[in-house]
Amino acid sequence: MRVLLVHPFCPLEELPSPPLSIGYVAAALERAAIEVKVLDLAVEPYSFDRFEKLLREYDPSIVGATAVTMTFNEAIKVVIDAKTIAPEITTVMGGPHVSFCAEESMRQYPELDVVVIGEGDNTIVEVARAREYGKDFNGIAGIVYRDGSDIRRGEERPPSIDVNTLPFPARHLLPLSKYRALGAPITMTTSRGCPFQCIFCVGRKMVGSKVRYRNAQSVVDEFQYLNGLGFPQINIVDDLFTSKKEHCITICDEIMARGIKAKWTSFARAGTVSLEVLEKMKQAGCYAVSFGFESSDPEILRKAKKGITVKQMVEAVEMCVEVGLIPHGSFVLGLPGETPETMRRTIEFGDILDEMGAMVGCHLLAPFPGTQVREKSEEYGLEILTDDWSQYTANRAVVQTATAKKAMFDEYAIEVEQKVQKQYVEIKKRLDAGIASDEDRDRYAALERMGFFYRLMMNRALEQYGCWTNGQIFSTEGVLRTMADRIADSVSCSKERAYELLGYSIEKGILKYRIDGDKTLWEWATTFPGRNLSP
């Protein structure tokens, strides 16, 4: 019994990190003694021919994909191809998008056999067992499935998994070296659940309103393990890490008791943080906290059921700055009641927070399936402009209000993008003039490395040029120079800069090479050859 899990492509601009949901599902399958492999298309280019070769060689019984709304089109393409190559394969999809439009997706795409609703850790194992023993899917809770020409929905499976019984995500199955090459953070959770009811979010529906907390010892076991993997930072991505003061403080105390020195971040909510909690987080190595502020307009906040005030936003930023944490504030433009005036005031409020020491970003509303803002769009006075899911990036308008139109939102988004691009142009000018600061050099070098390694991945330069007959080249410098010469054009880089970045990759354990007889072979480093950790 074999399962192939697919993480679909997403643009580099979305700053992908090692997929946590895939890791949890893979770990659940492994614990059930089901063989599993991961195909991560965020860091590997997709081609039908290579996918066909993989399916023929690995011969999985199930191909499963996960998707958010933005990546659904990419994920369903792989599902369609899987059925084209091997019609006997059972195709499964999970994630927040299909959880809330399962029947619609299955009617549109007959290649999709099963949709897993909500938390899939236990459900996917039951689906795999049914497939293994030739049983139908009748009686499995938490799925929508194809039964001949019919589409059936199983009983609801409430979010009730005891999070302390879950194995750690199977990160040893993920191409972690590639994510490290991009400078991505690595993520983890300490709880599941969200008690709040924001109308633009599906978190509560996916993982329930009751917050289920992991044991602090287990959390810090995982945290300590991640800290040894060479990532620049750890992101705690709970919907609300600060929802329970005691949980947050206990974890911080345990991190400090073990002497773990790690750079990490978390999400929080204005109104749930205090100086005591923030100081403790800072002492434990946290350097930044992200808040969803959404709007500066009280009426929009009320309609969005956000449950916070502008005063609480300001206080959260002030407290973070006081204890030495970087506050990140996120706003959503285009919520119900948005007007040109409310949008202007929110942007100006963001500028004020920026002057106070916050890092601020504004995104455009994307009415995802399952959200109240989509289900009650007419009631909220919103016009949804498209159901092309690939456009649901929050970077271009897919919704407008009576007075705040698409063109206005897009103009703002483009202006922000151009501002960011201009910043890097100015940094490059300072570098060329020899007047750049250390911060300038670090930012530009990180961006350059990201581009180099991303092109190395997506152009398959390592696979194409990373093997040759040695001749007389055996020294480290000779191997690096030869590889740099071979890949420079493919990665749009000078040979000298390619040589430097290859040296960096060896030093950081991102790439490695070996001499096998008369051949030199390059490959991505397998940083994690051992078995998965378990709590």
Class from secondary-structure proportions: alpha/beta
Number of helices: 20
The main pleated sheet reads as: 7 strands, mixed
What amount of the residues lies in strands?
A: 15-25%
* Rg, Cα atoms, Å: 24 Å
Poorly predicted spans: 528-535
CATH superfamily of the largest domain: Aldolase class I
Helix content: 40-55%
Write down the overall mean pLDDT.
Answer: 95
Total discrete domains: 3
The CATH topology label of the largest domain is TIM Barrel
Q: How many runs of DSSP E, i.e. beta strands?
A: 20
Global geometry = globular
Strand order of the largest sheet: 2-1-3-4-5-6-7
CATH architecture of the largest domain: Alpha-Beta Barrel
CATH class of the largest domain: Alpha Beta
For the record, give the distance between the C-alpha atoms at the N and C termini, rounded to a whole number: 25 Å
Would you give an account of this structure?
There is one protein chain. The chain has 535 residues and is α/β, with parallel strands linked by helices. It has three domains: 2-153, Rossmann fold; 185-404, TIM Barrel, CATH 3.20.20; 459-524, no CATH class. It has helices spanning 20-31, 48-58, 72-85, 96-99, 102-108, 121-132, 176-181, 203-207, 216-227, 245-257, 275-283, 298-303, 310-323, 340-356, 372-375, 406-433, 438-458, 461-465, 476-487, 495-507, and strands spanning 2-7, 35-40, 62-66, 90-94, 114-116, 143-147, 150-153, 186-188, 191-192, 212-213, 234-236, 264-268, 286-294, 326-333, 359-364, 383-384, 399-400, 467-469, 511-516, 519-524. It is globular and about 75 Å long. The model is unreliable at 528-535 (pLDDT under 50).
